[in-house]
Each structure stands twice: as structure tokens, then as C-alpha cells.
Amino acid sequence: MGIITIEDLPARLAGGKTLAGLDLGDKTIGVAVSDQRFSFAHPRPVIMRRKFSLDAVALLALLQKENAGAVVIGLPINMDGSEGPRAQKSRAFVRNMAQVSDLPFVLWDERLSTVAAERTLIEMDFSRRKRAGKIDSAAAAFILQGVLDRLQSLHASGRTEPDPPTAA
């Protein structure tokens, strides 16, 4: 499907779907998944990057298991608002994923998400070694939480209305 706007997300998240968040690193893909009420982002184990085809299979299996209806991917925009090589890599990743999946992607400005995630892990007294294994998923959770908060804000303002899941 490719890239959609945040305003288009609610239509893709009906029927008990969740929303996934990704933080792309050179060595890992940080993953987080929302609850079905779209209130909280929950980090998941990172996916170790090897080559795109293997990464895509692992990611799609996780997204299917988590019943994801859409994916938010952090777009690493420079502090001056420009897009550099890392942003281009994220856009290329989405283009490649669109070839193997119908899941829609939302690009989300991720400036300082890794910094915020690292500060939180330090506050939680994680050692440097333990932080290294959790930082990308923590950053994915920060990215996803930003989108979830924005969806709640849009819902409150009446501009979009995600369908809350029904109890099964």
C-alpha cells in the first residue's frame, strides 16, 4: 500500500487491529506495538538486520502475530528540518516493504526519540550493555507513543474517530 497520512490511520485500525512502530537502525530494527485501545506503546524484541528479504520476512511475521493494521516508521529528520541519508534509507525501506506487503506506513518525525529512549533507560538504571540491546525498541516505543498521542488528540478534536475495539 505504501505511505498514508496519520488522518487515514483510523480506517486501517478497525476490527481489533494494532498499530506497530519501527525504529530503523543499521544493525537492528526496533519494534513496538500498541494495545488495541491505541493508548500505550509496548516495546518488542529487536529484529537483527541481515539483508532486506530476511528482515522483511521476520518483520512481517511479527506484525501478523501482533495483528498490526498499519506501521509507523520513524523518519530521522535533521534538526534543521531537512532530510539526509538516514531519512532516505527509511523511505527506501518503506518502498521495498510496499513490494511485499499491503500494510500501510506512516512516516513520523523521530527527532530526539533515541535520546529520549536512552535517558529513560538510564533513569531505569540499565547498564550500558543492557541499554544497547533495548535502545532501538525503546525508541520505537517513543515514536509509536507520539503517534498514539496524536491519534487521541485528533479523536478528541473530532477530526478523526478511531473505532474502539469491541470486547470479544
What does this protein look like?
The chain is α/β, with parallel strands linked by helices. Helices cover 43% and strands 23% of the residues. The protein has five helices and six strands. It has a six-stranded mixed beta sheet with strand order 1-6-5-2-3-4, sandwiched between helices. A hairpin with a 6-residue loop joins β3 and β4. α4 packs across α5. The C terminus is likely disordered. InterPro entries: RNaseH-like_sf, YqgF, YqgF/RNaseH-like_dom, YqgF/RNaseH-like_dom_sf. Belongs to the YqgF HJR family. Its EC number is 3.1.-.-. One of its GO terms (cellular component) is cytosol.
The largest sheet has its strands arranged as 1-6-5-2-3-4
Structural class: alpha/beta
Record field, number of beta strands: 6
Query: What is the CATH architecture assignment?
Result: 2-Layer Sandwich
SS field, number of helical segments: 5
Q: What percent of residues are in strands?
A: 15-25%
| Portion in helices | 40-55%
Overall outline: globular
Distance between the termini: 29 Å
**CATH level 1 class label:** Alpha Beta
The CATH homologous superfamily is termed YqgF/RNase H-like domain
Low-pLDDT parts are: 160-168
Rounded to an integer in angstroms, the radius of gyration calculated over CA atoms is 15 Å
The tally of structural domains comes to: 1
Named CATH topology? Nucleotidyltransferase, domain 5
The biggest sheet, with number of strands, parallel, antiparallel or mixed sense and barrel status, is: 6 strands, mixed
* Helix and strand pattern: EHEEEHEHEHH
The residue-averaged pLDDT reads 83
